[in-house]
Amino acid sequence: MILLDSNILIYLRDPALGEKIIAQLQDSRIHTCNIIIAEVLGYKAIENVDAQYFEELFSTMKNHLLDATITSKVIELRRTVNIELPDSIIAATALTENLTLWTHTTEDFEKIPNLRLFDPVVS
Fold first, then answer.
1. Residue 100, in any domain of the structure
2. Radius of gyration (C-alpha) of the chain in whole angstroms
3. CA 91 to CA 100: how far, in whole Å?
């Protein structure tokens, strides 16, 4: 099971990168969380056609809300690793829900123990 970071979702709109990413997904179940939705749809320069594409895509994914378990993991990560709050929520979601985080910014997450990372852009 896969949690797609916002950068990977955005790359899906690029014809070359999107094809490469989709080919690697195969029949995998993809997940999201509210912070990723907010990052993608909250981009102030997003065009309406792109917003509609992402809204439809998000509706096909399992969305993990920021519950007490994920919040506890966020607190643990923020106390032990130098990480921004949005990234800590994404990482905590992946860890708590046993998901592999697909991201092109693996360096933002590499200090987090037991977090499975994959960069579909360079693979």
1. yes
2. 14
3. 9
CA-based torsion, 70, 28, 81, 104: positive or negative: negative
Tell me which residue range forms the domain holding 98: 2-118
Q: Strand locations in 25-82, DSSP E? A: 30-33, 62-64
Nearest CA among 79, 81, 101, 83 for reference residue 33: 101
By C-alpha distance, which of 90, 85, 113, 112 is closest to 101? Answer: 90
CATH of the domain at 39: 3.40.50.1010
pTM of full prediction above 0.85: yes
What is the tally of structural domains in the chain? 1
Give the integer Cα–Cα distance in Å for 104 and 102: 7
Tens digit of pLDDT for each residue in 33-78?
Answer: 999 999 999 999 999 999 999 999 999 999 999 999 999 999 999 9
